[in-house]
Amino acid sequence: MTLSPAAFETLAALLKARSGLVIGADKTYLLETRLAPILKRDNLRDLNALADRLRRPGTEAIARDFVEAMTTNESFFFRDDKPFQHFRSRALPRLHAARPAGTPIRVWSAAASSGQEAYSLAMILTESRALLGQRKVEILGTDIARDQLARARDALYTQFEVQRGLPVQMLMRYFRKEDTGWRVNEPVRSIPQFREWNLLGDLRPLGRFDVVFCRNVLIYFDQPTKARVLQAISAQMAPDGVLYLGGAETVLGITDRLAPLPDERGVYGLVTTAPAVRPTIASVA
Questions:
Q1: Of the four, 131, 147, 226, 235, which is 20 to 30 A from 71 by CA?
Q2: DSSP state of 264
Q3: Rounded distance, CA 96 to CA 93, Å?
Q4: 254 pLDDT more than 50
Q5: Taking the mean position of all CA atoms in its chain, how far away is CA 178?
Q6: What does the alpha-carbon distance between residue 173 and residue 185 come to, in Å, rounded to a whole number?
Q7: What does the longest C-alpha to C-alpha distance in the chain come to?
Q8: Separation of CA 257 from chain center
């Protein structure tokens, strides 16, 4: 049965309101593919029936499942590599030198998915211990997808996943082979903490961060949502903090709170001369 315009609008509006993700009418096939397990599980005839269910009260559980099913969870170790090189050789030494002894450095992996980005950062921290001495570095990974966060906490990855971007020396040093894959070893596994959090919600309870990785997330948002998220992230950054975006993402023309760092691509810092305006927090259902 063809998806009706009204049903598509219901699904698209709910997805945007809860996650910021924008889906066009040409992506009906994506709805059909990703939502098929929910239709089968809940004995729903088609997407029109799902939309009708979601319009009713008391559908929080299925609404959450719907949003999680539509979330893209592409992640792999040391993705694109250059941001991690910059973090290791430029940002981390600078922040360490600028912070008083005993002050932790806080790193946020926004949209952490199944945890590869957070564990890549944790491996860098482990290898930078001679530089950092006794300084504590905290890594927080957040995502809206509970199943992906569970995978991140479990820290077990398939052979295919560890072959995507992970140097073999690091695989041997920081993972142990198990029957079903490769699990991150302690103490690297204990460094990141993972929490369920929505980028469209109030970010203030997360605290202030020295480094933010929010890569390949904004590409799924429309311009107003990008501006809202960047404004909220900038409000949580230390004055000399660093933001890493994906290669196809930028702050230019979206916010005046952030600007590219000189001679760097995809690396941004706060514009300290701009007024520190806190974002208006809209409630997220």
A1: 235
A2: -
A3: 5
A4: yes
A5: 27
A6: 8
A7: 64
A8: 20
126-178 confidence digits (pLDDT tens): 999 999 999 999 999 999 988 899 999 999 999 999 998 899 999 999 999 99
Helices assigned H by DSSP within 92-206: 92-98, 116-127, 129-132, 146-154, 159-162, 168-174
Asked whether residue 40 falls in the same domain as residue 133, the answer is: no
In a domain, 284, yes or no: no
Tell me, yes or no, whether 88 and 215 share the same domain.
Answer: yes
DSSP 8-class letter at 57: S
Q: Is 133 found in the same domain as 31?
A: no
Identify whether residues 87 and 53 lie together within a single domain.
no
Last residue of a domain, one of 27, 48, 70: 70
Q: Where are the beta strands (DSSP E) in the chain?
A: 105-109, 137-143, 156-157, 175-178, 181-184, 192-196, 209-213, 237-244, 258-260, 267-270
Q: Amino acid identity, residue 3? A: L
Amino acid at site 271: V
State the Cα–Cα distance between residues 211 and 268, nearest whole angstrom: 10
